[in-house]
Write a structure and sequence with these properties.
Rossmann fold, five-stranded parallel sheet, four-stranded parallel sheet, 20 helices, 44% helix, 12% strand, globular
């Protein structure tokens, strides 16, 4: 472990909180000191939930370490059962409480509560949040969906049934994604048996085996549990994540092939407007836009496909902080001729963005801050996210409606058509040049322009050319610099003059 200002994932017990808070009838007793009790902040403020998370803390303090902290845990667990009357309980320790080794599992067993109690072994110093959520969900599924003899009886001619697995509390647009995917399944002729963990109860998990197959929306959360259901109960998995127009069609076709349903009516009635919009009047301002993508594996891989196949962007960087899915992200990057960035160090991500100088960043809340500092447009596509990324409106990422949302979200940060023309026209204006601060503020400090990427060692920029470069609108300045340096190299020029800058512009505008 290392000290850091920002982190992409919390410790694994936060992942367990996400599962507990998503479900109903499940309570989490967490052995934790004062200071580790921030679930209310996460779920009621960031996700804007209207109820407190079902988490009880022992909340021991420094003075308690000299006495019996184990008794504090037993008291907290017993009182939580009496107060909340849950169907089931999960117990564990936070990263700090793990050090005192009080064994919450043994302590919970000693209470002999009349409900299932699942002990979580979440190694806080080796694993992180998504792994903790995945392991918690897996343990719950194993407990409540044990192997039974014989498949459930089905009425002849009945519609296929599936489970939707993976959506959690504090997930990026999970609630809206579930609504959109359920709508797609209903139009296709598939019934939803159980959605879990979001809104499911422990008794709902016992009904998972009644479904014909499982739809895994978020592999980071549900892949392990779904694979266990496939091995143990023979339930097939739908592995395509329906983010984007093309992936949604693949998702529909995969389900149709498994169930024998004709997908043609739904595919012909697709209500995504993204394909037409991306070919509309401003499409020339989309094609070739250089984009850097970073986030959890599910959203990063999907974003790379949408950006390259559906919007005509040039993906110049792709990465993830989810090391458990590094192989999948590397494979997606290789298809684009890239080397994936696998890192949970935001400083390494910032360095990559600064070097690549993309015109758009698709990332997490961290990348939004990084892009803002570098003067680059950004859209948030993945957790970790800020409260503003949990909108009050219906805003899914999945399905045909999700494709419409992606188009709006990704295109709006870009400078388009007339706006580009006007910014170039007024580039010498005292108010609109990018060294000026916001015009609506009475007093401000001029904003410092983002540092440009260094020129190759054998290329020298004249002072006049450097000054002229600053007059070019910020959103294409990086591209202008790269083009000028490439042009100078091709022409065998050692020094870039003003004329070289505009000769390069003419050359690459052909």
């Amino acid at each position: 472990m290392k000290l850091t200002v920002w982190t992409y994932e919390g410790p694994p017990h936060v992942g367990a909180m996400r599962i507990a808070t998503a479900m109903k009838g499940l309570h989490y007793v967490l052995h934790a000191p004062q200071g580790d009790t921030y679930a209310d902040l996460l779920f009621t403020m960031i996700e804007r939930r209207d109820a407190r998370p079902p988490v009880t803390y022992t909340t021991f303090q420094a003075r308690d370490l000299g006495s019996d902290t184990a008794q504090l845990f037993k008291t907290a667990a017993l009182e939580a059962y009496k107060r909340f009357k849950p169907e089931a309980m999960i117990v564990g320790a936070s990263c700090t409480a793990e050090l005192i080794q009080d064994d919450p599992a043994g302590l919970a067993r000693a209470l002999k509560l009349p409900i299932p109690v699942i002990a979580l072994d979440l190694p806080s110093y080796q694993k992180k949040e998504n792994w903790g959520a995945s392991e918690t969900f897996y343990q719950l599924v194993r407990t409540f969906a044990p192997k039974v003899e014989g498949a459930p009886e089905r009425t002849p001619g009945s519609r296929p049934r599936c489970n939707i697995l993976g959506p959690t509390a504090l997930g990026f647009r999970h609630r809206d994604d579930v609504v959109e995917v359920k709508r797609l399944l209903a139009r296709l002729g598939v019934d939803v048996n159980v959605t879990a963990p979001l809104e499911a109860t422990p008794s709902d998990l016992a009904r998972l085996t009644d479904a014909d197959f499982n739809v895994v929306l978020y592999p980071e959360i549900a892949d392990v549990a779904a694979r266990w259901l496939e091995r143990t109960h023979g339930q097939k998995m739908i592995r395509t994540v329906p983010i984007g127009q093309n992936a949604t069609k693949d998702f529909i076709n995969e389900i149709a092939a498994l169930t024998g349903i004709d997908p043609t009516p739904l595919l012909n009635d697709a209500d995504a407007r993204l394909p037409w919009w991306s070919r509309s009047v401003d499409s020339n301002y989309l094609t070739g836009k250089r984009v850097f993508i970073f986030g959890d594996a599910t959203h990063a891989i999907a974003a790379a496909r949408v950006a390259s196949e559906e919007l005509g962007f040039e993906v110049v960087g792709l990465g993830t902080y989810a090391r458990e899915f590094a192989r999948d992200v590397r494979a997606a990057a290789e298809k684009l001729g890239l080397t994936a960035l696998i890192s949970d160090d935001y400083l390494e991500v910032e360095q990559a963005i600064a070097e690549l100088q993309p015109e758009l960043v698709l990332g997490t809340q961290m990348e939004r801050h990084i892009a803002k500092r570098l003067g680059i447009g950004c859209a948030v596509i993945s957790a970790p996210a800020h409260v503003q990324d949990y909108p009050a409106r219906f805003s899914p990422q999945m399905g045909f409606e999700g494709a419409n949302v992606l188009f709006d979200t990704w295109v709006h940060p870009l400078v388009m058509g007339l706006e580009e023309h006007l910014l170039a026209m007024f580039r010498e204006d005292f108010e609109f040049n990018d060294a000026a601060g916001p015009s609506h503020l009475a007093a401000h400090q001029p904003a410092s322009p983002p540092a440009a990427a260094p020129a190759p060692s054998d290329i020298i920029w004249s002072k006049e050319a450097e000054a002229e470069l600053t007059k070019i609108p910020f959103f294409v300045r990086g591209k202008a610099r790269r083009n000028a340096e490439r042009f100078a190299t091709e022409q065998g020029l050692a020094i870039i003059q003003i004329e070289t800058l505009y000769d390069a512009k003419s050359h690459y505008a052909r």
